[in-house]
Amino acid sequence: MNPSVPPAGLPADAVRIEAATGSGAGGHLVAYSSFEPYELADYLEALSRLLPDVAITVWRMPTSSLTAFLLSDPEGDLVLGWADTAAQSPGIAARIAPPAAGGCDADGFYRPTGFSLAFVADPALLQARGAEPPTRWSDLAAPALRQALLFPDPRRSGAGYLALTTILQYYGPEDGWRLMVEIDRNVIDYPGSAWEPAARVGQNGAALGITVRVAARRRLSDNPALIQALPQDAIGAEAEVYGVLAGSKQQALARRALDWVMSDEAADLFRHHAKLLLRGERDPALFPINPERASRERPAVLQRFDALMRLRAVRAPKSEATP
């Protein structure tokens, strides 16, 4: 494939990561990811030092778009970060190269990192509403937070699906959906990424955004007046996957890039971006979701979420909510 030409069938919401990369004299890899653009730019820069003669083009897209795209069997070489639940979708296994020696799981994926949930909050806006920073998921249903929340759309965003899955797996389906209905009454809208809820906190009355720690750290560095809060009852967490595409004609070269993912240098950079390092001791405060169950239940969960959105649309004229 011509690396200067976008791959056939590339989703409309895919963006090319503009960052330093190798010369291309030794080869050119094409990678796909659902990670945030700013972290991918850092990873590309690090890979350019490890593989100075290898150019790497990375296309970033939301989790759901990446799932559909990989199922279409696109040209390319590797997955450079994706949600574990999405990676277990039916049909994906055939798109991933068989396992190789050295840190790879039986399904061909590497899982050195994970992501976890966090809230980004504007203390001034919370105080104006008479609300405290939330410490539990149920706090998000408080009347004081009416039309104050941003929740990533679980149909598109890996962070959104992790948040919804955490609620359902921790509270149980019946109580979890009851709580989600109550939370929805406080939601302004459902952006399609983890970054947007964090980025919009403090603007237009948005007092709190549900997001992941990676995005929270970035947002707080941009605006130190904001704070991070954690749902201490269930800080949802999920593994992230990296792998070589079965159709790649450069699998050996792609595995050299993934060798970096498993390195100590990469671990330092992952830690800088507030990722979970899964090769060490696990944080007992986290609530690791069951990814197999989350993947299996995804169609039914999203069908019910769609029903919630239809109810939301019915009541929209009575509020400022956006469906």
Automatic annotation (TrEMBL):
Q: Name one GO molecular function term.
A: thiamine pyrophosphate binding
Q: Does the record bear Transferase in its keywords?
A: no
Give the GO terms filed under biological process for this record: thiamine transport
- Does the keyword field hold Signal? yes
One Pfam family named in its UniProt record: SBP_bac_6
Protein known as: ABC transporter substrate-binding protein
Per the record, GO CC terms?
outer membrane-bounded periplasmic space
| UniProt entry keywords in alphabetical sequence | Signal
